[in-house]
Every structure is written in C-alpha cells, then in structure tokens.
Amino acid sequence: MSTIQMVDLQTQYKKIKDEVDRAVINVLESSAFINGKPVGEFASALAQFLGVKHVIPCANGTDALQIALMSLDLQPGDEVITPSFTYVATTEVVALLRLKPVFVEVDPRTFCMDPERLEAAITPKTKAIVPVHLYGHAAPMKEILEIAAKHNLPVIEDTAQAMGADYIFPDGTKAKAGTMGTVGCTSFFPSKNLGCYGDGGAMFTNDDALAEKLRMIANHGQKVRYYHDMVGCNSRLDTVQAAVLNIKLRHLEEYNAARIAAADTYDKLFSTQESIVVPYRAAYTRHVFHQYTLQLEGIDRDKMVDYLAAKGIPSMIYYPVPAHRQKMFDAFGGSGYELPVTDWLTNRVISLPMHSELTFETQKYIADAVIEFAKQS
pTM for this structure? Predict the structure, then answer.
C-alpha cells in the first residue's frame, strides 16, 4: 500500500496534469501574472456554479473574511458573534479590526453554530454574525437568517470548508453554502475541496453596491486607479492560481461526490462500534466532507493518534484549543466563557484521512486500525 496522506493532492494532480500544465504554461507565456484573463473567467464560472451574482477573488480566505467585515463599516468595540469551535482565522480578523469577538456554542452533532445560543448572545452592541460551515457541513442557515433579520444584522458566512455544499430550505429550495447571507467567504488553500496550488480566496454576494465596495477594499480602496475613496488593502488572486482553479472547478462536483462516497464507506466500516460516533448529516444539507471527523467515547485520543501513526496512518485534531481558550483572546474576555459543548468536542474529535482519491483498501486499513485500538481501550 502506498503512503497514506490526509489529503492526496499529488494523485489528484496527476489525473488533471495535462489540463493544469497547459493552463499554467498559457499564463507564463502571456506574462499576465496579475489580473490576467483567467481571474475574470474563474470569477464568472464560480458565480455561475454558486448561483450568485458576484464573486470577488482575493489573496486568501483570511483576507476574504477581513475585507467582508471592513465592508460593513463597523466601529471599534462593535460585537461580532462567531463560534469558538473553528479555525482561528474566523475570529482573528474580528480582533484585528479592533472589533469584539463574542463566542457562542455549537451543536454537538453538526459542530456548527447553535441558533438558540446565537440569539441569547445578541446585545445592542452586536453588529454582525459569522456562522461557519464546519468540516463540510452547512450551518443551520434558516434559523440564523431569521434571527439576523429579526435584529437587522448582516451575516458573513465562513465557507472555507464547505465549497459546493447544498443547503435545503423547508420548502425544498436549495442554495449553495456561502450564498445565503450578506457575504460569503472562502479559502482556496490547497487542501480545500476546491483548492489551488498556493493561496487564494474569494467573497460572494448578491448585493451590487456591496460587491463594488468589496472590490474596492481589496484593491487599495480604489475604483479608478490612483483615486482612493476608502481605506483598503492589497488582496489579489494571482493569475496562475486562477488558471488552476478554473480547471479544478470543473471537477468539483466529482471531487465532492468522491468525498461523500468515502464518508459512506467509513460510516459502514464503523457502524458496529458504539464507542465511535461517525459524522452526523442533518437532513437540511448535503455534507461535502472537507474533514471526516469522529467523536470518541471512552477512548484515549492522544494514544490513538500515536497508535495510528505507528501504522503509517495520519490523523488530525481540528481543533485542540478552541478560540475562547486561546491566549490571543484573553484581552477580549475569552477565558471567561463557559462553552461546555465546545470544550467537550475539543477533547473527543479526531479526523481521519479524507480526500477524493481514497480507495476502499486504504479506508479498510484505516478503519481496522481505529477499531482495533478502540477495542483495546
């Protein structure tokens, strides 16, 4: 058996090598390395895929979140509600802009923002909500959007881990994750479901005026060159990465289908193990499995990590320290939060290899090792 990877980008690349190499060479020959034609082509293609009016590419997913917040004209001290159980970028940009992150609890099954806890956290200082579609599972957007509308609050969706995930409203209407709020944000980090070969990100919105503002902020606050109407930054998706993404976007549904099939296989392999809780899939979404994350009951997770590593099986813990327990948020009262579900999850979750190139043989080997250790515990 070949070396097991958490994400096998090399095998994926080999399958599209001719397409990618040709696209990259075309960029090199054009020498249009910044704002070349593939950037606009990718933005248009992604907008069509998502069913959204505007896609604004940028340099990375963290920039996307920061620019989205900057577009809302928030003031220092304004409160922004986010889950604590997320990658630090979601919450880091809030603090970077001198806003106050307010951490709320997540649902123990979906790992996404708990709407009841969200509403309880809203104060007169609350100015925005940032739900996270974690691990590929969509947040409960119907409830979140209703709460946001009730309190007249913008919603910035962190879609970095759920590109292509569907949300299904009670009336059967479908929408892609990231297209339901005020602004959707994503990352094209290489390991993402739609990843480039470097850094990249994007924002999406159906609001024409907001789209123009997002473009301006990402381009030094200018609409006309050398005329700067607002404070902005320099955040661009380079042409080479856009060329790669143009190719990979054509395969995204195929990649997501492969991830879902791999998750189905894992689910079956673990179906008889009471101490291993497989990922929950709410009826309102199509989970696209950026991660395949188990919850362990009565099992020493750290020893399992070591046990798997000894068998050549990588695993990851996303995330061992939630945002409210990070030192960087002490000044925002992070240590004063009581989020028992979040703390409970950080001690029990473990993610197994998940990507579009997994074989049954590899998954069986992984699952057998996990079960073998679980039985010894």
Answer: 0.97
